[in-house]
Amino acid sequence: VRLGAGPTGPRTRREWTRRKDAAPREASEAAGGSFARNRRLAASMAPTLQQAYRRRWWMACTAVLENLFFSAVLLGWGSLLIMLKDEGFYSSKCPAENTTITTTTQDGHHKWPTCALQDEMLNLGFTIGSFVLSATTLPLGILMDRFGPRPLRLVGSASFAASCTLMALASRNTEVLSPLIFLALSLNGFGGICLTFTSLTLPNMFGNLRSTFMALMIGSYASSAITFPGIKLIKDAGVTFVVIMFTWSGLACLIFLNCALNWPVEAFPAPEEVNYTKKIKLSGLALDHKVTGDRFYTHVTTVGQRLSQKAPSLEEGDDIFISSQDVRGTSEKLPERSVPFRKSLCAPIFLWSLLTMGLTQLRIIFYMAAMNKMLEFIVLSGQEQKTSEQSEKASESVGFYTSVFGAMQLLCLLTCPLIGYIMDWRIKDCVDAPAEGTGLRDASSWGLLMDGTATKSPRPRYRKIQKLTNAINAFTLTNFLLVGFGITCLINNLHLQFVTFVLHTIVRGFFHSACGSLYAAVFPSNHFGTLTGLQSLISAVFALLQQPLFMAMVGPLQGDPFWVNFGLLLFSLLGFLLPSYLFYYRARLQKEYTANGAGPLKVLNSPEVTA
């Protein structure tokens, strides 16, 4: 048909062809619209950002509990290792003639042999799980910037539930299903870091208390090492390992439900980027010319930012100042003024932090992996040949000290907010920046009374400099504690290990919080997630070295940890290089403020000062 008549007149062959091709496209668009509607329906279950703000205390409290019992529980490896041996994981690797210790299961009917090869296989599983726990923060940071924390938290809770289910199933037939422990520990680490990493966005809703709440989240994450010691006590009370794991998996499903009902689709903006209170009050406002409350708030914020700056047109003496054009131009130019990511990536502060955090992570993870063997070596005084009575005594002592170590992990709930308090010290008394062209000496020397009389005023504290000072104090204290921890590890005294436990717990709670607060103080907020994820990835690579160190300790060194601990003690001294550079960097900033009379923002963004 070449021509067709109708109400709209003749149609050519091309029009008929176009209409024919449009049919499947319309069907595709309809299907796409249906998919989009389904996505909107799924997203409709999530609360809005304003509703989430009203529930922020509930979300923060539940996040602390979820971190405490479901995040980095793998850090309580000492107790989990005992339970896995009791269940017979990789006991088939131990020939009868090479058996060193025999353990009895809960029912008393089975005795599973243990040996060094079994320890190496299980420690390999811990190495993989702890690597996933730290290394996945970089891709998680990228995904969270793209999709927000809600989907990652849902996936994390599901992964944790699957991990517990796999451990329960594998324990039914360990001779065949022991390799499942590698997948279970990997899912455990992945689910735990998803819950931890997403919870670190919640402190954005608490304004000036952000660092304190950040430290509380990290403290609950660090204290989660108490979970497996608690589970071991439940198991010793008579509850089977399978029942415990299935119950734990069911509790992880409650995290999924809590996230689905209370976590919004949008990410939580930083306090510097949005004022939650004003945003909530204006979110329902609608003007007559169809400007929504969010757009009105954005417009008012942009105008306020512009009016707080010097107007270039007024300085140049122009009579005409087009407000709307300048406001839009200012807001569009703001991203161009931001610091490039490669500059933050190559900053000396970030590079020194990679070295410090990597060595500290290796020190902490190795002690967790080798703690049972170290305690056994101290109890047996280094004897290679052990009688059954000595083996039983060593097993009881190791179990007791492992439980004590797990209970001490609750100290992280106190130590992490403490380091957050150190990082927030006198921040409220600080000002953002001096006026342009006013140096530190000029800005702090004189003030004006009400009658106009000049008078001497106290020297103001500037926010960036005070944050650097707090970071120097935090990292210096952490490194001294780390050195003290290394010294106590060298002394073969069983009672002294209580001090070692305390120092280990404090250091583990301090160094993560201090590093996160340092990045938040020095680097742009849009670089924080990526830099933190990259730092965790590099630290995880450092922590992989604990596997060959563990194999060297149980192999050539015959269980003696002295030389490994001594080498790690020497390397831990390199951690003082970061606070030393921060001290130099702070002095350089103060000197440039005074000499050039420039504001801190100009100095920080200058090409000469890279941080």
Question: How would you describe the overall organization of this protein?
Answer:
The protein is 68% helix and 3% strand. It is an all-alpha fold. Among the domains are: 226 residues, MFS general substrate transporter like domains (Growth Hormone, Chain: A, Up-down Bundle), CATH 1.20.1250; 36 residues, no CATH class. The strands form three sheets. It has a two-stranded antiparallel sheet with strand order 1-2. It has a two-stranded parallel ribbon with strand order 3-6. The chain has a two-stranded antiparallel ribbon with strand order 4-5. A hairpin with a 6-residue loop joins strand 1 and strand 2. Helix 6 packs across helix 7 and helix 18 packs antiparallel against helix 23. The longest helix has 32 residues. The protein is globular, with a radius of gyration of 30 Å. The N terminus and C terminus are likely disordered.
CATH class of the domain at 45-270: Mainly Alpha
Fraction of residues in helices?
A: 55-70%
Number of helices, where a helix is a run of at least 4 consecutive DSSP H or I residues = 28
Structural class: mainly alpha
Shape: globular
Residue runs with pLDDT of under 50 for 5 or more positions? 1-21, 34-39, 101-107, 279-337, 440-457, 598-611
Mind telling me which CATH architecture of the domain at 45-270 this is?
A: Up-down Bundle
**Major β-sheet annotation:** 2 strands, antiparallel
Which strands sit side by side, in order, in the main sheet? 1-2
CATH superfamily descriptor of the domain at 45-270: MFS general substrate transporter like domains
What do we call the CATH topology of the domain at 45-270?
Answer: Growth Hormone, Chain: A
Please tell me how large the radius of gyration is: 30 Å
Protein name: Solute carrier family 43 member 1
Catalytic activity: L-isoleucine(in) = L-isoleucine(out); L-leucine(in) = L-leucine(out); L-phenylalanine(in) = L-phenylalanine(out); L-methionine(in) = L-methionine(out)
Keywords: Cell membrane, Glycoprotein, Membrane, Transmembrane, Transmembrane helix
InterPro entries: MFS, MFS_trans_sf
